[in-house]
Design a protein that fits this description.
Pathway: Glycan metabolism; cellulose degradation. Belongs to the glycosyl hydrolase 3 family. It is an enzyme of class 3 (hydrolase). This protein is globular. The chain has 22 helices and 26 strands. Helix 7 (163-179) packs parallel to helix 8 (209-223) and helix 18 (503-522) packs parallel to helix 20. By secondary structure, the chain is an alpha/beta fold. The strands form eight sheets. A six-stranded mixed beta sheet has the order 12-17-16-15-13-14, sandwiched between helices. Bound molecules: 2-acetamido-2-deoxy-beta-D-glucopyranose (NAG) (8 copies).
Length: 798
């Protein structure tokens, strides 16, 4: 139902509009003549802006306000079934009807699509001007709800440093969204990881603005690719403007920093994405910046975002953010005041997970000219997105296409490929890995230990019940499949559930640790899987027991609960031990942890996390992931990011205070630096060359290097280029990434990597809002990580 009638209707309308253009103008429509003129907004050949302008004129005030909100959660999940509450749905729909969202993650795609199509058809038929909804969803690991391919989380995919592969994954994710009629996603999140305590770091790409900008822009371009009819497939929402360094690593906490900090340290991914990808929408952050919540921060949203950065799309609130102006920040006196202040600052659409939003208060302010004009702008922006994505022209999605698209075999293979490349090998003493038959000797058994060994830990935006095999294999299940169940001894060791850690729980953990130690002693090898996270937004599965992800900030960068005790107890047995970390965060790596023979970080990997780890342990896959975030060696030893300012590194007076940990780079280097990751083979990067060509402002920089595989296994290396001006008028980082490329090199072979025509302007930065490029002596570094011993410097005068 739905699809065909609508298609025919579109075809008829097009014929009518052609006739109308040939034979009549609006003024011909009087008298006895039958007017066949089709309204311009129904004419697919006009631009989204032209159609939106026409439709806007036809809307009543209430219809306009209706477009500024929506019904984010149409369906709930009750005991494994889709539940729909008609009463509450109608209550919201009467005043908020711009977009619609599917609701809870636990529901399955095949149960949802027919029901959603009914609601979509009802809205088209039932609304006065037949204005369709647009369906909005989060899309971090692929589909927001169950039944799609569960890709790894954002920090995992970024750890692949493989942009072409990432694009293919996002194309698969886009097609799965599209098959469910989701034409608008609430990604990418281009916030910069500035604080290791922030529970949302796993949703972000990394600590470097260039890397984040590259991934974020690819996400936008791929999602917003146009279909054969010229419609944008899936509109994107770049977010959260601006965020990353909330006080204490707390999700909605305040931020500080002047305009140079915002534009140079936080905004570069927006600048790139706006210029190259043109995201159709943007989400303002929860944070107050310099005391002004982003939702009412006119300076940031207008002067900086629209003015300096040139953003032209729709600006939406974060979920409930307008309400928080009233209930938390106390910068509004009433619901109406909150709505008006955020509208005046630049918000054009309200995201509200449930219930009535605050923009509905605008219904009573019709006579206010300023409000009326701002509402027109907001509705025009919304309608343009609907026209651009073909909401008025495309048929509803079909069950057949959904069945052919979701979990398509190609998507699953892409998922395996990116998961393999997302895992980072951090330590591998004496080539302990890959495991050989010899290492599995002794009892011939392997002990698999730890609370994260038997679950899938994909992050809170992934629809996964971590213990349910329908969502994929845990590491334990994958290892049992590979080695035979009889060869794997399993012990959970401690609980995953760690806050409210009472005496009884501790006693239970001590018993569980002893049990795990016994298992390790019976085996020749222990693989210990520790982490944080566990869970998503499905309360029925997790009872809010997450120890990472949104709404959680880490008071301690060690493993939560008794996990370090468990690891130490296993290491004390002397049984060779491999540590696998599973989380969206980094954990302190110190002498305790370094006693492991090998360490891997698997981040928030998706449904193939277990399989990929096993392939890497057994040498069927050569690891090629690299860190996109530096790892501290002590709980308080951060900021730790590689691109600190030169003055940051002097700390106190190092000659007087030799025990000072202070700034991490000079006196206490990070445990693991940005860009770092090991392989089973041995690459050398040589013949580094940096040269300039062209004249004046057209000058470009060419960089090249040779990568040779001198080891015994084919593999992939990430060649990284960093730079720094020797002089600048404001303080600039000691080094900044400017290019990277992942290359595959066969055994005994070599590849030349070339970065051609890097524009001079890319070396610039903002000074009080003005883009500035300086001439002078620049150092470029080329190598395999941000660590100086992995880099070759070359100076050029520009
Ligand atoms: C709209 O309503 C008509 C008449 O009730 C019905 O025949 C048609 O199928 C409906 N269209 C959609 C898309 O539901
Ligand atoms: C869900 O299932 C449980 C256990 O069978 C039952 O007690 C509960 O009433 C059910 N809830 C609903 C809303 O059906
Ligand atoms: C449905 O929504 C209405 C209005 O919000 C509420 O009063 C009612 O309890 C809901 N019904 C169920 C079964 O949840
Ligand atoms: C996955 O990677 C393998 C090895 O590089 C490649 O041969 C294969 O084509 C890739 N699969 C997909 C679907 O891209
Ligand atoms: C290593 O760090 C963890 C987490 O902070 C801590 O529990 C442990 O005591 C540390 N070990 C050493 C030797 O510093
Ligand atoms: C890589 O090559 C270097 C230099 O020849 C050597 O010292 C090192 O052991 C090699 N590493 C591996 C993993 O083969
Ligand atoms: C830069 O290149 C453009 C296009 O090739 C050319 O029109 C312009 O004159 C050049 N400017 C300078 C300063 O060389
Ligand atoms: C640029 O700086 C490097 C490193 O300090 C120095 O060796 C080189 O002589 C400088 N080049 C010029 C032209 O000043």
């Amino acid at each position: 139902m739905g699809a065909l009638p609508q298609l025919f209707a579109v075809a008829l309308l097009l014929i009518h509009s052609n006739l109308a253009q040939a034979s009549s103008t609006p003024s011909d429509c009087g008298g006895s003549q039958v007017c066949r003129k089709t309204e311009p907004y129904k004419t697919a050949s006009l631009t989204p802006a032209e159609r939106a302008n026409d439709l806007l004129k036809r809307l009543t005030w209430e219809e306009k306000i209706g477009q500024m909100g929506g019904i984010r959660a149409a369906f709930r999940s009750i005991n494994g079934s889709v539940a729909f509450n008609r009463t509450s749905f109608e209550q919201i729909r009467s005043t908020q009807n711009g977009q619609i969202g599917y609701g809870q993650q636990a529901n399955w795609a095949m149960d949802l699509l027919p029901r959603m199509n009914e609601l979509r058809a009802e809205q088209i038929n039932g609304s006065r001007l037949h204005i369709p909804y647009i369906t909005v969803a989060d899309s971090v690991n692929g589909l927001w709800f169950s039944g799609g391919t569960v890709f790894p989380g954002t920090i995992s995919m970024a750890s692949s440093w493989n942009l072409p592969l990432y694009e293919q994954v996002i194309a698969a994710s886009r097609d799965e969204n599209l098959a469910m009629g989701i034409n608008w996603v609430l990604s990418p999140e281009v916030d910069i990881i500035h604080d290791p305590r922030n529970g949302r770091n796993g949703e972000m790409y990394g600590e470097d603005t260039y890397l984040v900008g590259e991934f974020g822009t690819r996400y936008i371009k791929t999602m917003q690719e146009k279909d054969d009819n010229g419609f944008v497939k899936v509109a994107t929402t770049i977010k959260h403007f601006v965020f990353g360094s909330g006080s204490g690593g707390v999700n909605r906490a305040s931020m500080f920093g002047g305009i140079n900090h915002i534009l140079n340290d936080l905004a570069p991914p927006y600048r790139k994405a706006i210029r190259e990808g043109q995201p159709l929408s943007l989400m303002a952050s929860y944070s107050s910046i310099d005391g002004v919540p982003a939702s009412i921060n006119k300076y940031l949203l207008q002067d900086v975002l629209r003015g300096i950065l040139g953003f032209k799309g729709l600006i939406m609130s974060d979920a409930n953010a307008i309400q928080y102006l009233l209930t938390e920040s106390k910068v509004a006196r009433t619901r109406s005041d909150a709505a008006v202040k955020s509208l005046q600052a630049g918000l054009e659409h309200e995201l509200k997970p449930d219930g009535l939003g605050l923009f509905v208060e605008l219904r009573s302010l019709h006579s206010n000219k300023e409000i009326a004009s701002l509402v027109d702008e907001a509705v025009r922006a919304m309608l343009q997105i609907k026209f651009a994505t073909g909401m008025f022209d495309q048929p509803l999605p079909t069950i057949e296409n959904m069945a052919a698209t979701l979990r398509n075999p190609r998507h699953l293979l892409l998922n395996r490929n990116i998961t393999r490349e997302s895992i980072v090998l951090l330590k591998n003493d004496d080539a302990f890995l890959p495991l050989t038959k010899g290492l599995l000797s002794g009892s011939g058994k392997v002990a698999v230990i730890g609370p994260y060994a038997d679950l899938i830990n994909a992050g809170n935006y992934a629809p996964v019940d971590p213990a349910d095999p329908r969502y994929g294999n845990s590491f334990l299940r994958s290892f049992e499949n590979a080695l035979g169940k009889e060869n794997v001894l399993y012990a959970q060791g401690t609980s995953t559930v760690l806050p409210n850690y009472d005496h009884d729980a501790q006693a239970k953990d001590q018993a569980a640790i002893s049990f795990a130690v016994d298992k390790a002693k019976q085996a020749g090898l222990a693989v210990v899987v520790l982490g944080s996270g566990y869970g998503n937004f499905m309360p029925e599965f997790f009872n809010n027991e997450r120890t990472d992800t949104e709404g959680y900030s880490h008071a301690d960068l060690g493993f939560p609960g008794a996990q370090q005790q468990l690891l130490d107890a296993i290491l004390n047995t002397g049984v060779p031990t491999i540590l696998v970390m599973s989380a969206g965060q980094t954990f302190v790596i110190n002498q305790s942890t370094s006693r492991c023979k090998a360490i891997l970080h698997s981040w928030l990997a998706g449904e193939y996390s277990g399989d990929s780890l096993v392939e890497i342990l057994l040498g069927q896959v050569n690891p090629s992931g690299k860190l996109t975030v530096s790892i501290p060696d002590h709980n308080g030893a951060f900021p730790v990011a590689y691109d600190y300012l030169p003055s940051d590194d002097v700390g106190g007076f190092s000659t007087y205070t030799k025990y000072d940990w202070h700034w991490p780079q000079l006196t206490r280097k990070p445990a693991m630096p940005f860009g770092y990751g090991l392989s089973y083979t041995n690459f050398t990067i040589s013949e580094v060359s940096v040269s300039t060509s062209g004249t004046g402002s057209n000058r470009t920089i060419d960089v090249s290097a040779k990568v040779t595989n001198r080891g015994k296994m084919g593999g992939k290396e990430v060649v990284q280029v960093y730079f720094r001006p020797q002089y600048s008028i404001i303080e600039r980082p000691v080094m900044k990434l400017i290019r990277f490329s992942k290359v595959s090199v066969a055994v005994g072979s070599m590849e030349i990597v070339e970065f051609d025509r890097i524009a001079l302007t890319e070396l610039g930065f903002y000074v009080n809002g003005e883009w500035t490029v300086e001439e002078g002596n620049y150092t470029f570094w080329v190598g395999s990580s941000s660590r100086s011993s992995d880099l070759t410097p070359v100076n050029v005068v520009i």
